[in-house]
Amino acid sequence: MSTCPLCGSNGEFEMAEPDRYLGIDPEVTHPYYICRLCSHHYQPVVPAQRLLSYYPPSYYSSDRSGGLRRTFAGLRQWRRARAVEWRASKGRAIDVGCGRGLVLVQLKELGWDVVGMDWNAENARAVAERLGIPVVAGPEGLRTLAPNSFDAASLFHVLEHEQQPLELLSQVHRLLKPGARLLVGVPNWASAARRLFGRNWMGYDFPRHRQVFTPGSLRAALDRTGFRVDRLTGRLSDELIDLQRSSRMMLREHGIRPPILVAVTAIGAAMLVIVPRLFGQQSVIYAYARRQ
């Protein structure tokens, strides 16, 4: 038995897999449970040091790709920054889980006063020095920021990594002004991609994705922490990236590596989910919410 981090009810064992993406400790499996009450999917809580061991230094390394890939990544971050502005009063914004700081750069160019937060203290310092933007480290860093001092916040592919997602959302709620905007993006368990790829779906990412949300469980988490959801949607660019990675994982499992087969599988899978996106079955869901 394991306790659901959203509602506290008991969960039932669903499945267990090794780290299929980075291959850390391949002999160790990581279990997922499903909550009996709210149907949320999650991994049990593990010690903090063990969780940190799942993130090697290379996880935070800079993307050295060039050409079209770099251009596409820049466009993707620009669109994310514009999404943060949706119905928000331009002012001060925080990007929680800022990674390499790409969204922070875009928001700053759009005229926002920005602050970042990253769990890895070394990465937070490096990003702050490189970009000249304040970046705090971990939940402790968030606690040093003044309450009711931000007009917008974003959590792009962050909440699924949290062992206690309600605690993080409550921290963000404390930082935002009443009526301020929050944008959250997470993998969607109810997606057509998850049904297609099964355990190879990148939304699982054993063992780093501690939570796998559905539209219903994401809405419930936001409601319980003082947010009102205005809309749930998706983005085709995120769909294509997740599908490319999932298809690569699936082909690798069967010993098939030629890039042409990866491309064909990804394109075919993309065609299968373009229509389901319209019915809430996109691979990644974005929740646009506001602080109550």
Structure in words:
By secondary structure, the protein is α/β, with parallel strands linked by helices. Helices cover 37% and strands 23% of the residues. It is built from 10 helices and 12 strands. The chain has helices at residues 48-52, 67-84, 102-109, 121-131, 138-143, 165-175, 192-197, 215-224, 236-253, 259-274; strands spanning 2-3, 10-17, 30-35, 41-42, 92-96, 113-118, 135-137, 150-156, 176-187, 211-212, 227-233, 284-291. Strands 7-6-5-8-9-12-11 form a 7-stranded mixed β-sheet, sandwiched between helices. The chain has a 5-stranded antiparallel β-sheet with strand order 1-2-3-4-10, with no helix packed on it. Helix 3 (102-109) links the parallel strand 5 (92-96) and strand 6 (113-118). The longest helix is centred in the first third of the chain and has 18 residues, at 67-84. The two termini are 34 Å apart. The mean pLDDT is 87.
What would you call the structural class? alpha/beta
Sequence stretches where pLDDT stays below 50 over 5 or more residues: none
How many strands? 12
Rounded Rg = 18 Å
What spatial form do the alpha-carbon principal axes imply? globular
Mean pLDDT: 87
Q: How widely separated are the two ends? A: 34 Å
In percent, how helical is the residue content? 25-40%
How large is the count of helical segments? 10
- Pattern of helices and strands: EEEEHHEHEHEHEHEHEHEHHE
Strand content: 15-25%
- Major beta sheet, strand line-up: 7-6-5-8-9-12-11
Show the helix and strand layout.
Elements: E1 2-3, E2 10-17, E3 30-35, E4 41-42, H1 48-52, H2 67-84, E5 92-96, H3 102-109, E6 113-118, H4 121-131, E7 135-137, H5 138-143, E8 150-156, H6 165-175, E9 176-187, H7 192-197, E10 211-212, H8 215-224, E11 227-233, H9 236-253, H10 259-274, E12 284-291
Parallel strand pairs: 5-6, 5-8, 6-7, 8-9
Antiparallel strand pairs: 1-2, 2-3, 3-4, 4-10, 9-12, 11-12
